[in-house]
Amino acid sequence: MTLQSLKPPLLIRTLPTGLGILTASLGLATGASGSKAMEKSFPVSAGGSLTLICESGDIIVEGSSREDIRLVILSSQDLEKNFSFAFKRDGNALRILSARKSGEYKAGRYNLGMQFKLSVPDKLNLELETSSGHIAVSALECPSDSLPLKAKATGGEIRLEQVRARAVLKAVGGDIRVKGLTGPISAETSGGEMQVELAESPRVECSLLTGGGNISFSLPSASDADFTVETSGGAVTSGPPLELTAEPGSPVFTGRLGEGGVKIGLKAAGGKIRIKPYQ
To answer: Where is the DUF4097 domain (predicted)?
Structure first.
């Protein structure tokens, strides 16, 4: 099902029994201008997965001791009038799609005061995408090593805090800020800053790329890694014990931390790059 194929009605949707029956009776808070809030819960427990794809809105996910997923949707506009929603549960996996019903839409330009707030089990696989908004994830562990935490935001920033996962992040026109990540990271932004802190020494290759901002990268000083660092428009600095060197006139710096081994690539097309120990 694509975003364009979502259709009303909003009040009740029943999915085929082959996918697991899910009857969505939506709790709508109604004001004078219509329904601007929705609250739901889904029987998805620790070890399961959540996919959320929306045309408009911020996505905020927080790990908790819950044994299900609790979703609250808030908007400055009437939800039933302006948006379509689809909820599909297949075993211990939940997929949520949201789209505007009508009107001109351009990715990255219309947030419409929309927020998707989710309280989830603290061990859950995630795939999140918004075409106009921010993404924030905190206090969460992705239990499957083979499934990365994927997040893509157009027109907004991505924030991770105290997350254990293999993170794959892409921001179109926004910053990427990661604090206390346990696990490797592959991140790209076309026009924003990057601040990434790894709480543990990475065991798998990491890469950061920004097309128009600075990069600040931190990892434990006792890590073993080989660095390749490149910038075409700014300075490169590193704190001890890492020393970076480059051939005269070359924008590419290399250096080894500890015994080396794990490859870490940092590239900024037009900004500074700073590498420092994780505090």
So the answer is: 125-240
